[in-house]
From TrEMBL:
Keywords assigned: Glycosidase, Hydrolase
Annotated stretches, region: Disordered: 1-28
SUPFAM superfamilies attached to this UniProt entry: (Trans)glycosidases, Glycosyl hydrolase domain
Residue span(s) of domain Alpha-galactosidase NEW3: 702-778
Gene Ontology BP term (one): carbohydrate metabolic process
Origin species: Streptomyces sp. SID12501
Hydrolase found in the keyword field: yes
Name of the featured protein: Glycoside hydrolase
Biased composition (Low complexity): 1-26
Source lineage: Bacteria, Bacillati, Actinomycetota, Actinomycetes, Kitasatosporales
Length: 990
């Protein structure tokens, strides 16, 4: 059925007028101040709404009613452009709109006279296309500006230029945690970048352009993201709206492509590449390189290749050896091969102006021409002088350069190459019929003809680069701790813009700074051992300080620990290779942020020094000085490869021991590949077996049986003997093995003894959590051993009644329930809030019990509410059924935001003072003391050491008052949800 287009103007009616082009498809409605596009949820897509503000053109994206991305407002403007004089302008009021054939077209005025803006929005199931133009006004640049906070945290971009030294020594993660000021963000950049950004709110932005951009994220701490294209052409962007950040990434990969193959071989994943650059920089010669290779070989520092970096040529671009420093290159190659290494060299497309090949290339038209004057060759500045660039779009130039390379490799038995170059420069003009972006593709095709030896190549921005499957090495780093940390976050940035085969810069750094310290070098090697590939240079045997020319010797421990890191990586290679094969199918990054695997774990979004290596390995290497670190474990069952213990997340491990010989790493035992990962990473001195209890948090009623399973797994290399499983239970509880044996005469490597138990709590078991411990005893080659695992089984309270002298009260909309068992109490209640604006709660209390000098105390055993501000604790008042009679105060723990101490300072029955904060914990011991009109609140984690929460004057407190336990769901944003709170040991002393 054909439909006429729906149209409107700024003067349109304020009543909503929905329309749709197809049943269940996008709908458009006009309200007083916006045109709203609504896209319903569908299979694999959460649905969203897009509000197009009409008073001043702005875009707000919402999912399930919550803002997940919004453009900037005010003088910044959302859709902005520079006029002919370079001043910033932006779209203002909407002058009209139409909805036709699934496209919303919006026109708007602007801050520049005679310039208007036309935007076309094409909504899809999980994204919308935004194309817009400026008509009139001779614009020079077009850009989008976003309020960063509207979308949470921002990621992506790739190697970021920052005022703090990025990308060499800084890479903010998330991007908004620092500042990004990237003025030459484009397809010819040496930096590994793509015009793609994603957020913690599971939205994303892709700008479809082949022009240079100016990208600023939180520049000057302004809270803005500005994405400016240096062109007046149509601005084309795609905004993704998904349920998880990984979903956004997959949407992006669906556009730009995923690797069709891996350029690196299994051996190149398994062993390091040793490159000479950071060892010698340009002070290299044949004798030094042979000594370097010999030292590595003789000290058991394994690797697949010795790669000779810069300064072997007679001049840059000649592709001939310098006879003074390399008198016998064939003999050099033979000796390196004799040690079991491949041999590679560094090459570039830059040909210096004073080299022999430059004149030849000019005479034959093999160089890119100047953008300002296409009659002369382009001349560019790079780190080794002035040069021209081979024009790869010229078939004859490409054949000449390629032929020189292959002849060099054949003559000297060179196995592979490290391309270190730009394939294009903005100062140059593309060959006729080509664009600047084509040169990334041409460079990719050239490099793909050679073995890149795990050094990869720095190409980006186009589908060919994504599909080529090259290893990506980072830009040169410094040699300090800041660079080591940047190498980790930068890999996360690069891998999550679609280049999954990442490695850090050369281990120890390569930025021309003093040689790395022992600790930095070792920690960098340990970090790299938990990345897809290892890229090495600085020898742990000894190196040279490039700033002084002096020899730097490391001790034997440095060699041993570096060797250990290499062996760890090599043992992990079968697992890594599995991830490579998986990436070829899905495009998913191998090294990725925790929240890609655990999107509901809020803490993961700001973790800067941990990552997932595939689905099973959580890497948490020490990236700073010292011998301890904090580790965040997301939800899951984690095996600590250093301690041989099982830990249940989410959990923060504070002060985790990480001396120089320890690399913290954890394996998700429920993830694919866990067995291979544990086999590779488990320390030899860790227990051979582990025991795991499931489920993680069983719950039941008093006296009601439930099932547990114990799994005893042999992670060691040898068979275990006389393996026995057992349970330690609270007094009065019982357990019976109902499925599977409880013992095994032998348990081979990788095998598991599985037993299912029926566990029966004691009649009258106390509500709350009880420790259940699974034990496994076994005999290993070094004697008898015992390991254990503990879970907490929760005995649920059931609604019932309370006994005299306790009373109950309900100020919610009704339906509060209560229970008592001995000195334990439980409250189930609704209520919008317990605060000054709304006083809705369920109570269990004692009447006339708290005198003018009194202490009220309770143990808050547990609380559970959907709302993060659900509240449970203790309460006092002159009359708890009528707080307006004065003396009203509460001390509560919130579900997620710690303590709140609130009082009524003026006797009107409203809580109007507040103190508190901190983290939530259970059990929590809460205490309120009254001394006349002075109330003081305390809290404790153990009932012995108390901290003051706050103190307040409550002048309306008079005589003997009521005291009790209180709970409120605080469900104003969670309608219909209740809280369950369990208390123990309530006491009032006067």
């Amino acid at each position: 059925m054909l439909m006429a287009p729906v149209t409107g103007s700024a003067a349109a009616t304020t009543a909503a007028r929905p329309t749709t082009t197809a049943k269940g498809g996008p709908k458009v409605a006009r309200t007083a101040h916006a045109v709203t596009v609504s896209v319903p949820a569908s299979t694999g897509a959460p649905g969203y709404t897009l509000d197009v503000a009409t008073d001043e053109l702005a875009l707000t994206t919402r999912r399930a009613g919550k803002t997940v991305l919004a453009t900037a407002s005010g003088d910044t403007g959302a859709l902005r452009f520079t006029s002919a004089d370079g001043t910033w302008q932006h779209a203002t009021g909407v002058t009209g709109w139409t909805w036709k054939d699934g496209v919303l077209t919006v026109t708007a005025d602007s801050t520049l006279d005679d310039a208007t803006v036309a935007a076309r929005i094409t909504p899809g199931a999980d994204r919308y296309q935004l194309d817009w133009d400026v008509h009139g006004g001779a614009p020079k640049q077009l850009g989008l500006a976003y309020d960063l906070s509207s979308a949470g945290h921002w990621y992506g971009h790739g190697e970021a230029e920052t005022p703090q030294g990025g990308p060499g020594v800084d890479q903010p993660w998330p991007l908004d945690a620092g500042e990004v000021d990237h003025e030459t963000f484009g397809p010819a950049s040496y930096n590994m970048i793509d015009p793609f950004w994603y957020t913690s709110s599971s939205t994303g932005l892709r700008v479809d352009t082949g022009d240079v951009m100016d990208v600023a994220i939180n520049k000057g701490k302004d809270g803005l993201g500005t994405f400016t294209v240096e062109s007046s052409d149509t601005y084309k962007a795609t905004v993704f709206v998904e349920s998880t950040p990984l979903g956004v990434y997959r949407d992006y990969i669906g556009i730009v492509g995923k690797p069709a193959k891996s350029d690196a071989t299994y051996e190149q994943y398994a062993k390091p590449l040793w490159n000479s650059w950071a060892q010698f920089y340009t002070r290299v010669d044949q004798e030094k390189l042979l000594d370097y290779a010999t030292g590595l070989h003789d000290n058991g520092l394994d690797g697949h290749t010795i790669q000779l970096d810069d300064k072997w040529e007679s001049n840059y671009g000649n592709l001939t050896w310098d006879p003074k420093t390399f008198p016998d290159p064939k003999g050099l190659s033979d000796k390196i091969h004799g040690m079991g290494f491949d041999f590679g060299i560094w090459v570039t497309l830059w040909i210096n102006l004073d080299s022999d090949n430059h004149r030849y290339a000019v005479d034959h038209g093999y160089l890119l021409m100047d953008a300002g004057d296409t009659t002369k060759p382009c001349e560019v500045t790079w780190w080794n002088g002035q040069a021209g660039i081979i024009d790869l779009a010229n078939p004859e130039a490409k054949a000449w350069y390629e032929g020189n390379l292959k002849n060099l490799m054949d003559t000297y038995d060179i196995d592979g190459l490290k391309f270190d170059t730009r394939f294009f420069d903005e100062k140059c003009a593309p060959r006729e019929g080509h664009r600047a972006t084509d040169y990334q593709k041409l460079g990719t095709q050239l490099a793909d003809e050679f073995d890149l030896q795990g050094a990869g190549i720095r190409v980006h921005w186009n589908r060919t680069a994504h599909e080529a499957g090259f290893v990506t090495r980072q830009v040169d780093k410094g040699t300090g701790w800041d660079s080591l940390r940047a190498s980790a976050t930068q890999n996360l940035a690069i891998s999550t813009i679609g280049y999954p085969f990442v490695e850090s810069d050369m281990i120890g750094g390569s930025g021309g700074q003093p040689a790395p310290s022992k600790d930095v070098l070792v920690r960098w090697a340990q970090s790299a051992s938990l990345m897809p590939l290892m890229y090495a240079s600085t020898s742990p045997v000894g190196t040279f300080d490039t700033t002084t020319g002096q020899k730097v010797d490391y001790d034997q421990e440095t060699v041993d620990l570096y060797r250990q890191a290499i062996k760890t990586h090599e043992k992990l290679a079968p697992y890594i290779w599995d991830q490579v094969q998986g990436t070829l199918k899905t495009g998913d990054p191998i090294m990725r942020p925790l929240f890609f695997d655990f999107p509901k774990d809020e803490a993961s979004y700001t973790v800067t020094d941990e990552w997932m290596l595939g689905p099973a390995v959580l890497a948490a290497p020490k990236l700073s000085s010292g011998a301890t670190r904090s580790v965040h474990l997301p939800p899951g069952t984690w095996y600590d490869v250093n301690q041989g213990t099982v830990i249940r997340g989410p959990k923060n491990l504070k002060g985790y021991a990480a001396p120089l010989g320890v690399t913290p790493a954890f394996v998700n035992l429920k993830a694919k590949g866990a067995a291979k990962a544990v086999k590779a990473l488990k320390r030899d001195d860790a227990p051979a077996a582990s025991v795991l209890i499931s489920p993680d948090a069983p719950s039941t009623d008093s006296g009601t049986p439930f099932q547990l399973t114990t799994e005893v797994t042999n992670w060691g290399a040898r068979t275990l003997r006389n393996v026995k499983a057992a349970l330690d239970l609270p007094v009065g509880w019982s357990a019976e093995a109902t499925t599977g044996p409880t013992a095994a005469k032998s348990l081979r490597n990788g095998a598991t003894l599985t037993t299912t138990w029926t566990v029966t709590p004691a009649d009258g078991a106390r509500w709350g959590s009880h420790d259940l411990t699974g034990n496994a005893a076994y005999h290993a080659y070094d004697g008898s051993q015992k390991v254990s695992d503990t879970v907490q089984a929760r005995v649920r309270a059931a609604p019932g009644s309370v006994r005299e002298p306790y009373l109950t009260a309900d100020t919610t909309s009704g339906g509060a329930q209560y229970a008592q068992s001995g000195d334990q109490f439980a409250i189930w209640a609704g209520g919008q809030d317990l605060s000054g604006w709304k006083d809705e709660k369920g109570l269990v209390y004692l009447d006339d019990t708290a005198g003018e000098k009194a202490t009220v105390q309770v143990q808050l055993v547990s609380q559970n509410s959907a709302s993060p501000v659900g509240k449970a604790g203790i309460v006092v008042a002159n009359d708890l059924t009528a707080p307006e009679k004065g003396g009203y105060a509460v001390l509560v723990m919130t579900q997620s935001y710690g303590l709140e101490f609130m009082t009524d300072s003026d006797g009107d029955g409203r809580l109007d003072t507040w103190a508190g904060g901190g983290s939530t914990y259970h059990p929590a011991y809460l205490r309120l003391t009254r001394n006349g009109a002075t109330y003081t609140a305390y809290a404790s984690r153990d009932g012995e050491t108390w901290s003051q929460v706050g103190a307040a004057q409550v002048p309306s407190a008079a005589g003997t008052g009521d005291a009790g336990m209180v709970a409120s769901a605080a469900n104003v944003n969670y309608p219909g949800e209740n809280i369950e709170a369990v208390f123990s040991g309530f006491a009032v002393t006067s």
